[in-house]
Amino acid sequence: MQYPQTPLASGFRILAELIDSDDPATRVRVGQVTVPGFDTHTNQPERLESLLTETSDALSAIWVDMIGHGHADDELDMT
Question: In 1-79, which ranges are continuous DSSP H helix?
Answer without folding.
Answer: 7-19, 44-68
